[in-house]
Amino acid sequence: MDVAVDARPAWTFLSNHGHVLLALARDPEARLRDVADMIGITERAAQSIVADLESAGYLTRTRVGRRNRYSLNRDIPFRHPAERDHVIGELIDIFAPER
């Protein structure tokens, strides 16, 4: 069975939570509207994900003028028991290395 070169499966390895986290790692001053567009989710879903990440301690939100700035806590371990011995900073280093 031939599969088209650009055919992609319907699933991804990273959840939307992971995508939002990485988007904010790349641009800590990004508007959630832009993050949502980049990932392909609604702005409301992005807001909910940021609230989840913030309540779990993965990020903090600071108001700067009329915008938010996000700081990531890179030392918190992954939530799933299979990856619990790794911290999210390792993921960020792979997909959003410091410039």
Automatic annotation (TrEMBL):
Protein origin, superkingdom: Bacteria
Pfam families: MarR_2 (PF12802)
Domain HTH marR-type intervals: 17-65
GO molecular function: DNA-binding transcription factor activity
InterPro entries: HTH_MarR-typ, WH-like_DNA-bd_sf, WH_DNA-bd_sf
SUPFAM superfamilies: Winged helix' DNA-binding domain (SSF46785)
Protein name, entry field: MarR family transcriptional regulator
Organism: Dactylosporangium aurantiacum
